[in-house]
Amino acid sequence: MVFKDKKAISTVHGADPRKLSEVVKRLAAEADSDGLGGIGETSAANSGWLGAASPKGYYDVTDQVDVRGLDLLNSDSSLGDARTLFNRSKPFALASGRENTDLDGSERRIDWVESDTDEQLMLYIPFQSTLRVHTLQITSLPPINMNQEGGNALMRPKTLHLYTNRAHVLGFEEAEDLAATQTIVLQPEDWDGATGTAKVELRFVKFQKVSSLVLFVSDGHGEGERVRIDRVRIIGEKGEKRELGKLEKIGDEPGE
What ranges in 57-107 are assigned the alpha helix state H? Predict the structure, then answer.
């Protein structure tokens, strides 16, 4: 018998491999439709949506994100949360083939994040294992018509500050006082016209043993007041599983 939410939803009688296979496939499809199926758990192959091809020799390791420890500051609470950014499915703005800002309420699917009081966002991303991070893929799909009234036009991220191996999210003033592991300034041409995705290539030597990342978006492209992000993907290599709740800092060796 197969149970879901403490209720029996299917029964397979006898040794029937075909029937069992059908049940498993159906359950897998339902898990994918939930959007977060597999995120936060190790999987043999991550079949989630990517906004760009992975660099040769590196893989999508977003399944190593520990979603239980995610944190996101200055986000609009009426929209998506930190987990939304690691949803395995294609962004609704792309899947629907139309803008998702003026849809009928029954059709609208809010699967993106926007900043709240200004254009800044602070995202804390802990991992289940230490990673070698090569590239970040950030997808941002603001409406095509950016000329909204009231100065609330949505923007794509412009300046990104990355901090490695922090035990928790950084406050905005704290982040401004710390030297970032790397700072990247994205240009308008960095965003793919079809998928709205920017490939953020990192200084690989500085991201060799990463147990967590803090992504600080300090401003956006344009004159608006809010930044929008639809998806974040982590590209690199998996390392050793770490003990959850314990973050190691690079250089914490005896005598250092």
Answer: 92-95
